[in-house]
């Protein structure tokens, strides 16, 4: 039996928020350790930014601060077509 669309949407939003907070928590633990602590925190913020305007504003401020300090930030490929991100299975190549 399928759940109603509104309930699925609520479950999806809850899953996105849980994943974002889990990454932020893991990133905070990793910050003092050698490894990608800040990258994990930023990834968690990026996930939360999909659902929360407050997280979106915070992510923008963090990005600006990193750019101001000259710290390079990774650029993830964005999809420009319905085929998905570049290099994804089924994505069309540009020639």
Protein model, in words:
The chain is built from 3 helices and no strands. It has helices spanning 5-30, 37-48, 53-68. It is elongated and about 50 Å long.
List key phrases describing it.
mainly alpha
Summarize it.
The chain has helices at 5-30, 37-48, 53-68.
Ordered list of secondary-structure elements with their pairings:
Layout: H1 5-30, H2 37-48, H3 53-68
What share of the residues does DSSP label as strand, in percent?
under 5%
> Which sequence of SSEs, written as H and E, runs from N to C?
HHH
| N- to C-terminal distance | 45 Å
Uncertain regions spanning at least 5 consecutive residues: none
The residue fraction in helices comes out at: 55-70%
The largest sheet, given as strand count, sense and whether it forms a barrel, is: none
Shape field: elongated
Question: What's the gyration radius in Å?
Answer: 17 Å
**What oligomeric state best describes the polypeptide chains here?**
single chain
Structural class: mainly alpha
Number of helices: 3
Compute the average pLDDT: 78
What is the total tally of β strands?
0
């Amino acid at each position: 039996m399928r759940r109603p669309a509104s309930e699925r949407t609520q479950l999806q939003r809850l899953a996105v928020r849980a994943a974002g907070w889990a990454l932020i928590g893991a990133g905070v633990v990793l910050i003092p350790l050698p490894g990608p602590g800040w990258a994990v925190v930023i990834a968690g913020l990026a996930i939360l930014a999909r659902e929360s305007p407050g997280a979106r504003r915070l992510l923008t401020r963090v990005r600006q601060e990193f750019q101001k300090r000259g710290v390079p930030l990774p650029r993830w490929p964005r999809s420009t077509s319905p085929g998905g991100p570049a290099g994804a299975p089924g994505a069309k190549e540009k020639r």
